[in-house]
Amino acid sequence: MGSVQSGTDTFDRFSDDPAFAVHEGGKLTVQPTSAITSIADLALTYTPGVARVSSAIAAEPELARRFTWAPRVVAVVSDGTAVLGLGDIGPTASLPVMEGKACLFREFGGLDSVPIVLSTTDVEEIVATVLAIAPSFGGINLEDISAPRCFEIESRLREQLPIPVMHDDQHGTAIVVLAALRNAAKVVGRPLADLRVVVSGAGAAGVACTKILLEAGIGEIAVADSKGLLHAGREDLTETKQWLVQHTNPEGRSGTMVEALAGADVYLGLSGGSVPEEAIAAMAPGCIVFSLANPTPEVDPVMAATYAAVVATGRSDLANQINNVLAFPGVFRGAIDAGATRITEGMKLAAATAIADVVGDDVRADFIVPSPLDRRVAEAVAAAVGAAARAEGVTRD
User: Fold this and answer.
1) Together in a domain, 141 and 176
2) Fewest Cβ atoms closer than 10 Å to its Cβ: which of 132, 218, 224, 323?
3) How far apart are CA 272 and CA 12, in angstroms?
């Protein structure tokens, strides 16, 4: 219950929390683009006028791109199994998050979106459901779906749908991490190819960040899960972790993540938990610490700053926030505007470069990524993503 009765007074236990006021009644509405003030308006908006439009689309399906909202609407789809730092809270509790995502699509990308939460965690059912509703949308943003199911769900939908599909927890995070690392490397005067990175976390974000850093030409990278570094001697590896073993940790290091940090140039935390001070102290001089767990970073930012040249977190109250809103609105806007049928690795790399370039010559240790409120970012990302899509020939035109 939202309120309790005491005598003649009613006290709402949510009334003093401004977050609940913002979410009261939900955060979204649907507004028509044309007013209906006459019988003629009604006849054109609905029957009989709508029948002419539907008949034309039935004869030429591509006309739906011109005469429906679908091409410019994104479905934000979740099963509620990996929500923020809350974990598996289920579809109903995840709905405010998906509504929030839809608000960000509109505010920063100029795209409408519809939050859709599913009361199933079965891969087959999720894939089938999204395929069934896909004609209503121009893009699919998968959100807060736990690993390893998220990898298969995204892969199968990308293969079967002719519209952009992206799991933002993977690729939005990866794009912004790469943008931030490009600028952090400038601050310390090192090329990416010279950096040794240790990634803590082999879940959705950890895998995607590792892949995009490899694409960007990182010098060396090793990944650790809760049991330690991934290496060929491990016998408990999933298919995804086996891929990581084949493409990372070229020296075959074993042991713990903390041990691997000795002499490392970059720590990339995407797993939660905590890292002791002595591990950060053992990193290379002028190191870079990205501690992205929310709400509590794996490495205390104040402590990290005593050893690292650059520190980033996922928190909005600290400098260098790694926030996915820097990526996904512009990525989908650029892909949709270009008529892209998918989101490629080249498009993600272009997005990361565009984000980094917004900072430009103003880059410094406490300013390696733009503010999430910087309206230039989505525009720059959209332009870069659209250009990459056209250059790669993955557009309809």
Assistant:
1) no
2) 132
3) 34
- Does residue 307 carry a catalytic annotation? no
Q: Which of 101, 211, 267, 307 is catalytic?
A: 101
* Residue 159: domain span: 64-163
Last residue of a domain, one of 139, 163, 187: 163
Q: Does the active-site annotation cover 101?
A: yes
Task: Quote the pLDDT of residue 194.
Answer: 96
Whether 225 is in a domain gets the answer yes
Task: Assess if residue 381 is contained within a domain.
Answer: yes
- pLDDT 10s digits, 124-177: 999 999 999 999 999 999 999 998 999 999 999 999 999 999 999 999 999 999
CA-nearest of 132, 131, 154 to 142 is: 154
